[in-house]
Amino acid sequence: MSADDLLPAGFIGPAPSPVFFDLAAWPIAFVRFPELDDEDRLEGVLGGLEMLLDQKVPFVAVWIPASHDHDDEPHEDEIASNKWIKRHREALNTYCKGYVYITRDEALAALLTDRIATISGRLFRFPMKVVGDHEEALQAGELMLAT
User: Fold this and answer.
1) Is residue 95 part of a domain?
2) For the chain, what is the total number of helices (H) and then of strands (E)?
3) Structural domain includes residue 90
4) % pLDDT > 70, the chain
5) Does residue 102 sit within a domain?
6) Distance between CA 61 and CA 79 in Å, rounded?
7) How many structural domains comprise the chain?
8) Superkingdom, according to UniProt (predicted)?
9) CA–CA separation, 136 vs 116, rounded Å?
10) pTM of this prediction?
11) Peptide bond preceding 27 in cis form (omega within 30 of 0)
């Protein structure tokens, strides 16, 4: 079975890698942050996000954290990610209706909440929220899509 066999109804074009993306609840997309040893880690996620943006429909990205800290990301990957965001910021702000981060780790939730406060409004115009589980993420995503 290929990634394209997993496409939800109405999704046009190639599917993002199922290694990183779960589109079962589309237009709510569950996206797994890549681990440091994942193959095609950067292209898999950024290329997949482009495929979501190419739909030109509102969506919410639900982020599932990696096991390592953001600060452990390779410097060159961080630079490439920042360049990608700058190139796609307008499309993200047009079509993405929110980011939801799932974690039960209280320390990580606090860290993510602080980071959201730093970038919210400055970089993105959509809401961001930290939740504890998959069900809460779906509820938050549905609310973001409705507003």
Assistant:
1) yes
2) 4, 5
3) yes
4) 89
5) yes
6) 21
7) 1
8) Bacteria
9) 18
10) 0.89
11) yes
At 63-100, the pLDDT tens digits run: 998 866 666 667 887 899 889 999 999 999 999 999 99
Residue numbers of the domain that contains 54:
42-129
**Coil, helix or strand at residue 122:** coil
Tokens 């997309």 sit at which residue?
29
143, part of any domain: no
In a 10 Å sphere around its CB, with 0-12 CB exposed, 13-18 middle and 19+ buried, how is residue 25 labelled?
A: middle
E strands within the chain? 21-25, 28-32, 59-64, 96-102, 128-131
Helix (H, G, I), strand (E, B), or coil: what is residue 98? strand
Evaluate whether 128 touches 92 at the Cβ level (below 8 Å). Answer: no
Half-sphere exposure of 62 toward its Cβ, with a 13 Å CA cutoff? 27
The share of the chain scoring above pLDDT 90, in percent, equals: 57
